[in-house]
Amino acid sequence: MRQQKLGTHMAVAVEGIDLARATSATQAALVKALHDNLVLCIRDQDLAPVAFRDAMARFGTPVKRLQLAATPECDEVNIISSEDRDVLGDGKRLVNGASWHTDDSFMQQPCSLTMLYGVIVPSSGGDTHFVNMYAAYEALAPETRARIDQLLVVHKYQSSRQTNRVSRRSESEMKAMPEAIHPLVRRHPATGRPGLYLNANRMEQVVGMARPESDALLDQLIAHAIEPRFQYRHVWRRGDVVIWDNRCTMHKANADYPEGERRLMHRVVVA
Ligand code: SIN
Fold first, then answer.
1. Distance from residue 192's CA to the centre of ligand 1 (Å)
2. Rounded to an integer, what distance in angstroms lies between the CA atom of residue 227 and that of residue 70?
3. Under 8 Å between Cβ of 124 and 257
4. How do the residues of the chain divide into helix, strand and coil, expressed in percent and rounded to 5?
5. From the CA of 80, how far away is ligand 1's center (Å)?
6. What's the longest Cα–Cα distance across the chain?
7. What is the pLDDT of residue 168?
8. Which residue ranges in the chain fall short of pLDDT 50?
């Protein structure tokens, strides 16, 4: 197994392994590489949906996500596609994950890791952007850290602060997704490192803080966290499996690829 750093402060690529046949020593090395680098890309995989789900199950328990379409072969493998539409809304094309976010923060138990498998990648563009939320937290002034360390934030599927359109959900789905409250600063259970926990599209308000003050604080923290110095941009190759840790990163999809080209990703998230 060969490793190559991808960004200056996050992301590593691994070559020379077949995920479907990884030994327990290889698996332990992959988990360490993920904890050390926050984003792990495993190159040159060839995984049908069930094999993809099974390989990802070694990192945690795969969970179904009804907000996205699933493959016919395996309902824990969701589809993210250039052909996605807001089916219950206006039926128009919709780019899932186009603004900075961490997955599932509107849920009481968000997924820990997300795995995306590049099935069809466009000839250019369609990169996924990441930010390192440990580094963003560490770069805050000590007085800002002291101010925010104990704060809690309400997250919602349909936040009044949302920065990009989210697909419309049925009444029963919305009922199953009541708001969730999460700390603004989270300590990662495996690494012990504190990081900012933000979601530009889902955060509603800081608990116990007046709306104008809360908006100003959240805007300031988001603007800080997405500064280019904390970013890594993943340029996809077909067959990449990219795994990221939602507890210490944010990410966003870029829909800047040539018109008419397809982009198809398979996605698994684990509890
Ligand atoms: C996501 O936000 O989960 C998808 C990211 C991407 O399609 O690049």
1. 26
2. 34
3. yes
4. 25, 25, 50
5. 7
6. 53
7. 72
8. none
Please name the residues in contact with 118: beta carbons below 8 A apart, sequence gap of 6 or more. Answer: 236, 237, 238, 239, 240, 241, 242, 265
From 243, 252, 254, 257, mutation site for ligand 1 pocket: most ligand atoms within 8 A of C-beta: 252
Render pLDDT for 83-111 as a digit per residue (tens, 0 to 9). Answer: 866 666 666 677 677 889 999 999 999 99
Query: Could you tell me where the DSSP H helices lie in the chain?
Result: 24-37, 49-56, 133-138, 142-148, 171-175, 211-225
What is the pLDDT at residue 65?
A: 86
- Check residue 171 and give its pLDDT: 76
pLDDT at 90: 66
Whole-structure pTM value: 0.93
Q: Which two tokens stand for residue 40?
A: 């792990």
**Dihedral-angle region of residue 184 (phi above 0 means left; psi in -120 to 50 means alpha; beta otherwise):** alpha
Please state whether 213 falls in left (phi above 0), alpha (psi between -120 and 50) or beta.
alpha
In this prediction, residue 102 carries a pLDDT of: 96
User: Residues 184-200, buried b or exposed e (16+ Cβ, 10 A)?
Assistant: bbbebeeeebbbbbbbb
Residue with CA at minimum distance from ligand 1 atom 3: 97
**Cα 125 to Cα 95, 179, 241, 267, distances in angstroms:** 14, 34, 17, 19
